Amino acid sequence: MRHSEELDRVIVAKVGSSTLVGPDGSLDYAYLSSLVDQLVELKGMGFRPVLVSSGAVAAGMERLGLAERPSDIPALQACASAGQAALTEVYAERLAAHGCPCGQVLLTRRDVVDRRGYLNARNTLDYLLELGAVPVVNENDTVAAYEFVFGDNDMLGAIVSTLVGAERYVILSDIDGMFTADPSTHPDAELIEHVDRIDADLVACAGGAGSSVGTGGMAAKLRAARALLAAGIPMTICHGRRPRSLVDAVLGRGRRTEFGSPGAPREQARKLWIGIANRAAGTVGVDAGCADAIRSQGASLLPVGVRSVSGTFDEGDVVSVVGPDGALVARGVTRYCSADLAKSRGLPLDVVARFLPDKADVPAIHRDELLVF
Q1: CA-based end-to-end distance of the chain
Q2: Whole-angstrom Cα distance, residue 57 to residue 77?
Q3: Is 221 annotated among the ligand-binding residues?
Q4: Domains in the chain, please, with CATH?
Q5: What is the pTM of this model?
Q6: Does 245 show up as a binding residue in the annotation?
């Protein structure tokens, strides 16, 4: 079996609850059928589609006869349990009508934080694609503990894109893309057609919460975009309700926002697992010179560039590296525990060696284990 890096023309599409659900709050089965038609059309063009689908809770509310979305975790997980079964049935039936098999893949953050679990998930997705199936992926909401949730399916889709080495990640949203301001309150807001770098100004354009039936928003989509810019995987946001929007996005047509460009350098799979799949155990603040060296020179992080250490972590944990402005610079595997790094911050290695002899030639984070954002 071939690994993800060798699978070509893989497209990951994510559809949100606000796009799947109709005005009455129930699943829009006509739209869902049109989405399946587009997935099958892409297969006919030689692409290998993977669908990350929200909507389990909304489908569960419908199946269980609930008029309002529950607020407590047990009720939400019960809705997800009933709804996931209903949603998968519909996808499987619609795909089977085209002679296409469907495979359900449910993930939690715990599955991908563990290196073995990450590789197992990758192998499962790879094999489903090899067999010509369309994997339908969602978070396993019925068992996910709070500390191990993805938070939103935009980031789940980004992680799946890195797992399968996707050619492109498409978010089918309820908006045409990223705007200079919220178009619902600023009619003069303009669509941002292309983004190569996410800076403070762009983050300021992003709103807060998403719809009443979803968990995401533009800020969540920017987090996913930032991860995929680091991975070298292009990402598109487009209006999922527009006819043939998924096919148009894959072919580079229609109103949309594009993040990154095809042909960008791809990062190593292990770095992507370190930087995107993992949760950071702490934060290391660095000075401007160190941040620049990491970003532009591919340097390792040395203790001399460290200015602050936040959180409690052990050697081998993943930590976030932030610059003087608080912006995320990188994420990597630390070779110091938090206490030792706090003692060593601002010091060259020859000085560190006087009180930590085993760290005489050890960077805080080696560049081979550092994903730069």
Answers
A1: 31
A2: 8
A3: no
A4: 4-270 (3.40.1160.10), 280-372 (2.30.130.10)
A5: 0.84
A6: no
